[in-house]
Amino acid sequence: MTERDAPPSDLTLETPETTDVAPDVAPDVAPDVAPDVVGELSDDGPSAEVRAQSDAADDGDDTIDPPAPVDPARALADARAALADARDNHGDDELQTADAQAAFAAAARDCGDHRAAVDADREALRIREAKLGPDHAETARARGDLSASLRGLGELDEALELARAAVDGLTAALGEDAPLVATAWGNLSAVYRARGDHDQAIEAGVRTLEMRRRLLGDKHLDVAVALTNLGTIHAANDNFARALELEGEAYDLRLLKLGDEHPDVLASLASLATLLRNNGNLSSALKTQRVAFAGQERVHGPLAPQTLESRRMIAYVLLRIGRRLEALTEVEQALRILPKGHRLAEEFRDLRRHLIDAVPGGKRRGGGRSKAKAKAKKAKAKAKKKAR
Fold first, then answer.
1. Residue 387 lies in a domain
2. N or C: at which end does the chain have fewer Cβ atoms within 10 angstroms?
3. What is the CATH number of the domain that holds 23?
């Protein structure tokens, strides 16, 4: 990363800045336009390419050669084909098919198809219970996988029951000092957070982080995942300063391991920008969001959802600190490149309307100042005619 592109040095600053906000500038974006900090932080672990290499990483080496990015849709298609092959070659009730079902479920979760993930995970659990018994480690692991998929679907009661069973089963089968047990605790923490049980979520999240540090070392990427997930819980509880500290550490670790333009590093940077904004550090938030946006535009392209979201957040922060014309410029640039009917176009148009209302002399397309000018001209002509 060049000096120009380096993230601001105050990424982990915890003291809110207030001097960059004019006293008369209130957040003048409607609530439906304002961002949701919790939704911007990941609770599903690292991306697919990082999962594939994380266990193989040598903690004595500070960097990993980043793999080619994995296309989630392509990964799902490949997993579906592998599942069909497993069924053809082994039938519906063998362990090879259970493995293929679990792989398909993971790919479906990555694509947000939680219903397909739940169905596949149920099949994987059914087969493993029948073949390996209810107390086998792989059966317990299947319960954890199904819990994660159910959490994504919002079926939290069953998700909690299965997450607890996964922790108990893996601990009984493998002992307390096993990476899979730490993963099970992390999933249990995520279920608690989804249910709004923040104290229990934090307790389980801290346990996950401590176990991964002890078992994997401080520089393992799974530690970064645990840091981000714990930060997400604190953010959901409005403790943005603590969340910022945790995500800052996660970002530093990902940057060290993956390099400055890896998708996970850029996502972590965007999360930092969100936390800085919610912690009141608007100047730092703007600088950090701009760095994230520049990287996402290079890596993902200008129309990628994460790139567009970063541009929207830049406009939002500019508006918050009173730089409304710059914010309007950002929104107009996005609207110029968005294809007609794009799902984010309406959000940008909503933000544009709010910005026009906030900018003195703002002009709407198809009206605004031109209509007012025409009305004034007509009134002037009428007065002149009356004077005659």
1. no
2. C
3. 1.25.40.10
